[in-house]
Amino acid sequence: MIENKALHRPVMNENSVNVVGATVSNSRNAYRCFDVDDAEDSRYCVSALHIKDCMDSYHFGFKAELNYECHALVRNYFNRFCHLSYDDSYITYCDMCYNSQNLFGCVGLKKGEYMIFNKQYAKEEYVELVDRMVAHMKSTKEFGEFFPIAMSPFGYNETQGNVYMPLTKKDVLNKGWKWEDTVPGTFGKETLSPENIQDDIQNIDDSILNAALKCISCGRNYNIAKAELDFYRRENVPVTRRCYDCRYMRRIGLRASRKLWHRQCMCDYATHANTVKHAHHEGGRCPNEFEKSYAPDRKDIVYCEQCYQAEVV
Hints:
Layout: E1 7-8, E2 17-25, E3 28-52, E4 55-68, E5 71-74, E6 77-80, E7 83-86, E8 89-92, E9 101-104, E10 113-116, E11 119-120, H1 123-139, H2 161-164, H3 169-174, E12 213-214, E13 221-222, H4 226-235, H5 244-254, E14 261-264, E15 289-292, E16 301-302, H6 305-312
């Protein structure tokens, strides 16, 4: 296939210094970070923007600082083990709290301060109670991690976790997690089967907008929207035979992983038809080693930065 002959860099990082990760830009001192921009002194962060001194957090940012084990935060300072909260500072184990500070174990608050379990306290009493609660939670080994997965209302196969870290139903149940057997969607109601859809988009009329189609991957029924059909006609491409979810999973599969593997450069004069000689190695295989975001079982050709630049510039 043509795409397997393309050359790839080990990771797609730009304008960054002292970074280990992939798809990192405008950052420095970021370790094992993926899909981040403007990150500084952070570790193990994914899908983040404008962050500083953060660790073990996902899908957050825009001026977030000193956050640990958090998800879906915006403009937050010194938050720990929190979810979906904006414009807060010094909050711990909170969910959906906004414009607040000094909270512990609160849910759904706006403009709260010195509150525990959504109850107001004087500052001195708040500090004393939080210290006691943290000490107890440390003794029971409850303190120090994000909300346990047992609290999730969703099955593992309904979450983004299963997109990036897929597990079988058996593995999920063995861990004591939830699994959703009833997959959302309509099945068996198709009015137009995949084999009866014309390949040439010019032969497709507007009647397909009223048809129920069947996904060739999962069997779920889906529809074609007018804007979607207009796009296919404009680009002269066939109508898709897959539902939205299956198309999404295929696109994710084409992306580099949010994981790194230590590998040697694949540039080898004996097997690859290099267009130019590379100054840092005269012949044979390039000795450079690196961390790459392409899994070993993929067929992508991955060159070190020196070999890549020599070939594409």
